[in-house]
Amino acid sequence: MMQESGTEATSNGPASQNGAVSVEDGARDARPKSATSVDVTAADLIHLQQQQALQVARQILLQQQQQQQHQQHQQQQQLQLQQGTNLKSPKDNDNLPSLQVPVSVAMMTPQVITPQQMQQILQQQVLSPQQLQVLLQQQQALMLQQQLQEFYKKQQEQLHLQLLQQQHAGKQSKEQQQQAQQLAFQQQLMQVQQLQQQHLLNLQRQGLLTIQPGQTALPLHSLTQGINPAELQQLWKEVTNLKEENSSNSNGRRGLDLSSPQPPKKPLLNQHASTNGQYMSHSLKREGSTLDDYQHSHHSHPLYGHGVCKWPGCEAVFEDFQSFLKHLNNEHALDDRSTAQCRVQMQVVQQLELQLAKDKERLQAMMTHLHVKSTEPKSTPQPLNLVSSITLSKTAPPEASPPLSLPQTPTTPTAPLTPLSQAHSVITPNSLHHSVGPMRRRYSDKYNMPISPDIVQNKEFYMNAEVRPPFTYASLIRQGILESPEKQLTLNEIYNWFTRMFAYFRRNAATWKNAVRHNLSLHKCFVRVENVKGAVWTVDELEFQKRRPQKITGSPALVKNIQTSLGYGPALSAAFQASMAENNIPLYTTASIGSPTLNSLANAIREEMIGAMDHGNSNGSDSSPGRSPLPAMHHIKEEPLDPEDHEGPLSLVTTANHSPDFDHHRDYDDDQGHDDML
DNA sequence: AAGCGCCTAAACATTG
DNA sequence: TCAATGTTTAGGCGCT
């Protein structure tokens, strides 16, 4: 199945299926001028904002640092004055290297933000919650560290002073002094220890540090033994290392690391990585190790499928995984372009998620409003089963069937707007793909017809969503043939029409092609005509029309359903469109609405339905406006006589799982020339 | 429950 | 010979 998706991607190039494609294209366009300000996307703006926030934060930190240095200096002076000693000169300090604050510590720290400043940053609201959290944690750690440093400094000073005092004091009460000194020192040690513990506790609490049973011994031990700058430094290093590891390991999530020597080059990247999984962060983090990392899992590498690089807008083909990796590292390395693409992809995902959430909500509301049978235990909400699910109970069981390999349809969470008249058909996300055994709920085919002009949009829907169209093969074949300029198609052209018009038929080719051939042979309405270039298939409308009416007449309930669907058709379409539009999803719709192919298809199908309706429902209670019973199109014989082939709809839910052998690359256009945008 | 229509699968034949 | 194209049969399911 994976293969199919891969081949599809390449084969129906134009018929890109997921809405993301267009966005990606946009990214591709924007990518060239890497650093220039030409293309400013929303992501860029956000990035910019965050950069500015960083800038502000750094400035604030700088100021704070200066202030603190100043304060420290003042404190030192005060201390000196209080101690009544002017002996201590800067020089003296310099002469005590062992007491110096470790340089590395000094480099890493001194950037504590005051509450006011922090608030200021918060008010700007330019930092993400994660960033803020990390920032806060770092600030707390920094503050504690600074307290430690100050304490340590004070301790140095006091010791120094005491030393001097001792020298000056001569021999008098030396022991007393030593005792007092020891006492003071012990107190200081205790205070430092408390601070350290507090610090560690904080770190632990913040998840920045995991203290192992034996680990606590280290700091405490060193403290009790007397603080050694080297040890302190080591301790701090350990703590900071832990912190860094922690932050970098946390799903790639990373906030502003103000204390890190190198400013984060692309703060956003790792955030994006969180949505894209580990691969992204892998490739961005350390290219050197990517190869090995992927080696074992290349089969499932999201960026590699069917020998094709799936990086947005790339599609480069590779013989083997190795070359792909090479390509990945070379062409999609960490640069502006990749970054931009990554951002775009993230937005795409976010958009999709957003849309999904919205639609789910909407669906829920709709179901609630319509009192959709709550009997279904299914987890997933059922879409449009607008028509009271009469036969629901029946259909329910099958749906529990084994999951077929059908991949989820990316594009359509929403139901086809098709006037799924098939009332009973319960089109659920599940059923769509699990075609389980009985899959074919093709309900009365004859009834399901698209009815409203909105069929065009439905067409678009089917072109892009892997949803089985609710028409029989015969109906579809006929449609394809009638759409052709000469009203005739070769078998291959029919195949192409199917794949072009319905995403659903882009897979499981063997199955549906066989069905097509079977239908062509089986139904009298399809006439094989020898042509110059071989044989072509035409439609005998008379034969085709013969069988349509019958059913409709039969069941009032069905008629009712049809009416219902008629009424809902447009509404559904509108809802679908609204949904898409609302979420800014490009979807195939509008673009090709005016295409002749679609229109003709829509018309033809509509006719078909209308014809059926006429037969079954002569009074036309429904709203179908201007329904010219058949003929509107291709010499359709009016008389709806015998029921021969009136085809109903293909079951929407059908055997979706077959061997995937969609033979891509059959040009879709060999048949009629109008391939609209496909 | 029977009959019908449709779908899927598959065997087989024909053709290029 | 092979693949594409046609034909036919069989079985299953949903619906009436």
Automatic annotation (TrEMBL):
Instruction: Identify the GO cellular component terms for this protein.
Output: nucleus
Give all residue intervals belonging to the Fork-head domain: 468-541
Polar residues: compositionally biased ranges: 1-20, 616-626
Q: Which Pfam families match?
A: Forkhead, FOXP-CC
Composition bias, Acidic residues:
669-678
Q: Which InterPro entries match?
A: FH_FOXP1_P2 (IPR047412), Fork_head_dom (IPR001766), FOXP (IPR050998), FOXP-CC (IPR032354), TF_fork_head_CS_2 (IPR030456), WH-like_DNA-bd_sf (IPR036388), WH_DNA-bd_sf (IPR036390)
CDD domains from the entry?
FH_FOXP2 (cd20065)
- Residues the UniProt record assigns to the DNA-binding region sit at 468-541
Sorted keywords for this record are: DNA-binding, Metal-binding, Nucleus, Repressor, Transcription, Transcription regulation, Zinc, Zinc-finger
Q: Where is this region: Disordered?
A: 1-35, 75-98, 243-273, 394-419, 612-678
Which intervals carry biased composition (Low complexity)?
406-419
Concerning PROSITE patterns, the annotation shows:
FORK_HEAD_2 (PS00658), FORK_HEAD_3 (PS50039)
Give TM regions. Answer: none
Classify the main location: nucleus
- List where in the cell it is found: Nucleus
Q: What GO MF terms are annotated?
A: DNA-binding transcription repressor activity, RNA polymerase II-specific; RNA polymerase II cis-regulatory region sequence-specific DNA binding; zinc ion binding
Name listed for the protein in its UniProt record: Forkhead box P1b
